[in-house]
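Researcher: Quick one. three chains, 1249 residues in total.
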Amino acid sequence: MKPFAYLRPTGLPEAVAAHGGRPGSRYLGGGTNLVDLMKLGVEAPDTLVDLTGLPLASVEETSDGGLRIGSGVRNATLASHPLVRTRYPVLAQAVLAGASAQLRNVATTGGNLLQRTRCPYFQDVAKPCNKREPGSGCGARDGSHRDHAVLGHSPQCIATHPSDLAVALAVLDASVELHGPDGTRSVPAAAFHRLPGEHPERDTVVEPGEIVTAVLLPPETAGLPCRYRKARDRASYAFALASVAALLDIADGRVRRVALAFGGLAHRPWRASAAEELLRGADPTETAVRQAVEAELAGAQPLRDNAYKVPLARNLACDVLLALARAARS
Amino acid sequence: MDPEPPARTPALGVPATRREGLLKVTGTARYAAEHALPDRAYAWPVPATVARGQVTAVDTAAALALPGVLAVLTPYDAPRLGPADDPNLRVLQDLAVPHRGWYVALAVAESTEAARAAAAAVRVTYDTDPHDTGLRTDHPDLYTPEIVNGGYPAHRERGDAVAAFAAAEVQVDCAYTVPPLHNHPMEPHAATALWEAGEAGETGDAGDAGAAALTVYDSSQGTGLVRQALAALFRLPEDRVTVVSEHVGGAFGCKGTPRPHVVLAAMAARYTGRPVTLALPRRHLPAVVGHRPPTLHRVRLGARTDGTLTALAHEVTTHTSRIREFVEQAAVPARVMYAAPALLTTHRVVALDVPTPSWMRAPGECPGMYALESAVDELADALGTDPVELRIRNEPDAEPDSGRPFSSRHLVACLREGAALFDWAAHRTPRRDGPLLIGTGVASSTYPVYVAPASARVHARPDGTYLVQTNATDLGTGARTVLGQIAADTLRVPPDRVTVEIGHSALPPGPVAGGSAGTASWGWAVHDACADLVALLERHPRPLPEPGLSVSADTTASAKQRSPYARHAFGAQFAEVQVDTVTGEVRVRRLLGVFAAGRILNPLTARSQFVGGMVMGLGMALTEHSGVDPAFGDFTESDLASYHVPVHADVPDIEVHWLDEHDKHLNPVGGKGIGEIGIVGTAAAIGNAFHHATGRRIRELPLTPDRVLTALE
Amino acid sequence: MAHPIERTRSRVRLQVNGERYEGELDHRVTLLDLLREHLGLTGAKKGCDHGQCGACTVLVDGRRANSCLLLAVAQDGADVTTVEGLGPAGPNPLQEAFLERDAFQCGYCTPGQLCSATGLLAEAAAAPGSADLSRAGIAEGMSGNLCRCGAYPRIVDAVRDVVAARENAAPGGAVRGGAVRGEAVHGEAVHGEAVHGEAVRGEVGA
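Model:
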């Protein structure tokens, strides 16, 4: 870790100015990912701008009946907030499925979205990684990639995004608010993270100097039946091998609204739009659900060692959707 | 002062809370990196980033320019060391790189953050050679060594097992794979080293060391070996080297021999003239502190239709490094377990560009019994015989390979008792509960009885208290406490009259804490010293005059005697697992072990040791995966986020029982050692339960969702 | 707010176990290293230094956190409790329970387990409706603290002892917990739910 300047502004304009959009500047939330990466030498900022002094740590109802979650809200606070638990329970479930209590107490909503992949080649500065050093190669492709992507990967990068929270946001049709030198803008959560393409060094659409200021949950997905389920290598404190967030609203025996997203399969939460298309308006029988999910996963491109993720994701998605369907019937 | 009244409650065989417990729960116990000596500096090693080759240059300029950096040692300029039995200790002495992670430089600085930054700024260049890190059964360089770890012959044959197998009515021929496994004690290896000038004045170069003295606080399983190694490496008389390991944060074998960190700490302290603390970064551990090597097993069992074995062949293939041979003795337990008239056990090893393996809890027995006990389960399945009954049917009268009589063996009782406690008979049909498949499995456990010579001194003070001293080491085993109980029991006084001092190289010598032999070894010496003291005190009027009376004992003559008996602890483990057909996740619902390990000296700490071993066995079965990266030659899962040791939520309330076993062929206190047997058999019991639940057999560990889903398809 | 001295150092003030600390620190110094190397409070342990083991767990403003990932300068003004501060007048009931239950072996994860359990119990007290203090709930809640010695079942015993003692002290007590001993380890978690906390599951389908 090289020495760095540390600033803790109390207002947004001050924070943006302190960061200056410079390549050596980093915003600091809880630090649970950034400090880890700094110790690994993957990140080497010369200036840290601590955002925890900004008024970004509240959960508020919006005038349209949605919820505004400040980017500084700690994961634990988010998961235990009564409005989140009652209106958007998949989000609380997803957050509680991740990390440990200690990490959840410290990590922020913004930080959770911005966390980097845990690919071991990304984390080891002595190994090739196009995400960390564009053009240096991908160590995972021919090496160990059991945990890596089966969807949306590119020749340059097969990393997955580790966030559970982001997968839940994808099915809730959330949006992410950003504030930067050019003002404020909003991006759908499902478009916040990128696919690697030819620029795996860019995880998200955040522009230099921009701060994630809030996550907005819309009223349309509030109070709808939804669930998160995660499969991992041990019973707790591990990243997803695959995970599923699903939202399923049934009226008169037909799917009125459905959203399905996968975690652990791609460089970003994978919104299963093909599956959703097939399920919208349909009777969610076991066959219908399975066919829809398989249609989505038909495009999967597993690698030598991660083909198991396809049946795993299929099973998880069917299990969660059918459980939601059963619950709706009873 | 009156003579002590006889103790009214026995001190041995009763639960006693740990003597250092208060220190540990208040955070005041000091571990090796926690001695804040004045002017202390911090060291951070630089690992090689190639799997095989030579260092061609080490550029330290950028590192040395950083604030707070005191020195960067390299193979070019590091002080020259003396000899070492273990080439892994001769760090920074030459340019060869035998594996990725081998240390090629050492940064020393005023703070840990400065040392870390300096280490990261060192630029090393290499000439690399193609590396070979892949273990396979048809590797052309495989050879059969003379002996394997533990001093056993690598190859043993009794009868013609291959022919007997071929002629057997029922045959099981299966291959199992155990991956590399890592000890990962919670405390990474650390040492704080301090040099003192002797009467002659300044400390000098390593070659001019007559007057200097070295003190090291080290996280080790035995300060005696560390002192011996450091004395040779730094060319000091042993009496000028002091090593202290008062509190050690776990070890499980990887601190059993001296490790490079202690050499580097001493070297850095010498070079800078300051005390130096070196605490290894967690990610470095797999490469430099030893590991359980991967083992490939082929087990052939030939049997009659009544289940009695006619042939047992267990062949093990494993790896070692290019610089030191270590061969995991995984086929050895097959020489002990079952009455097969034809028996073949053998080991082959290949030297690869990998780190040197070393001890990890129950070396040999742990992976070997996974394979053997899984194969026995496959035989039970083939025969349609109950797996408990099949084992009982093959109970030997004497140790199968050697023919020696057992000093005591209660495996059958463990199996029967365990089956009853586990309600085994009621769970013989696998069942389904929604998406969960539920099954049960059993496996035997075994661990040999080892004992080593030790010395102890006990001092009777005029005030009626006693001081017991022996260079034992307590890694969390409870040794300190049990030794106090042995002393109190022999002295016939309440334990609170006894103080125990261990973990210091100036104390009467004792063997390393390993091989489950510690309590037997040190305890023997403590017992003898206390018994002799009791006899002496009977002849002395009380109160004793100052300074009191001391007696020393040395068990070399008695402990070294080769026993005519085959001496082993045995046990049986039972597991119930659930397999989630949706995700492939396997979780243990129940885990029970019954052990016969001689006399249990402290039920409180013994239960913790058994459970601890079983938790590690659970990890071996379900969560701990390590692999060698074919492209880069290192262990891909090098930190605790990727190498999954079990967490709280993985572990059910494990049940442990033991049978009182009175074996008079052991040692004066009658224990067989319990630190390692808990991990032996657990993985097989879980794997066998998986098979019971699903009807599928996965023959490699761990049983992670990827393998399970593939097997269930 | 920490007072910058040079570009890379600041004067930092915080409270540790009730005592005020003030010092000039390199911004790179973690809270863990501040405690261990600057304040001589070696109770919090460095098990991995990367937030993967929980041995460094302390309480910051009453909430458990991995001190190895907290920059000391960013904790300016915080109130930190370490294992040394849990029972300043001798071992507290949780520490006593650890001793009685043999909820430790090598002791290296123990300070972290104690601070984590303290945090867990505080979280449960603050949100009694959703706290799960069954064996399974405690095990899940403590899963951020690795123990290689495998003392997990005894640690859960010890925490359950404290839960029971609190329930007895406040009958009709604030938290659900189930039987002290012998209940099934795997409650709802057995059937594959990703999360503990019945209240959350119950709202699915609302």
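The helical segments of chain C are 31-38, 93-101, 110-126, 135-141, 152-169, 198-203.
Researcher: Thanks, that's what I needed.
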